[in-house]
């Protein structure tokens, strides 16, 4: 997801207009990397929770920018079939479908015996 949004914004150092959307892109990209680090480090609860947020945020943003529009960002209204946007929707949708049940499952698992003996 970070890569898709970096491409969409025009590179790592670029910031989309309006400025608040550009900042949201950078926050999303950083959160996506943190999510990957948490999951790779074996921290499923915060990792899957953050993954759900990383997926849900851009989905909401896509709906708002294509539907009613956002302040200063009306150029995408009605642009539901933009190819990179559709790729982003697919990735975000799959991540959301994966992360929510895995987060719930992480809440149900018992703590490891190593932690319970401390």
From TrEMBL:
Chain ranges passing through the membrane: 19-40, 47-64, 84-104
Keyword annotations from UniProtKB, A to Z: Membrane, Transmembrane, Transmembrane helix
Domain of life the protein comes from: Bacteria
Protein name: Integral membrane protein
Source species: Streptomyces chiangmaiensis
């Amino acid at each position: 997801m970070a890569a898709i949004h970096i491409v969409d914004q025009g590179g790592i150092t670029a910031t989309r207009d309006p400025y608040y959307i550009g900042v949201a892109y950078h926050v999303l990209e950083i959160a996506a990397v943190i999510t990957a680090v948490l999951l790779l480090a074996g921290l499923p609860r915060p990792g899957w929770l953050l993954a759900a947020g990383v997926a849900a945020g851009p989905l909401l943003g896509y709906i708002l920018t294509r539907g009613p529009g956002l302040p200063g960002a009306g150029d995408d209204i009605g642009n539901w079939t933009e190819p990179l946007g559709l790729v982003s929707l697919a990735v975000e949708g799959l991540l959301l479908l994966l992360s929510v049940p895995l987060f719930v499952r992480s809440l149900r698992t018992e703590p490891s015996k190593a932690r319970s003996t401390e």
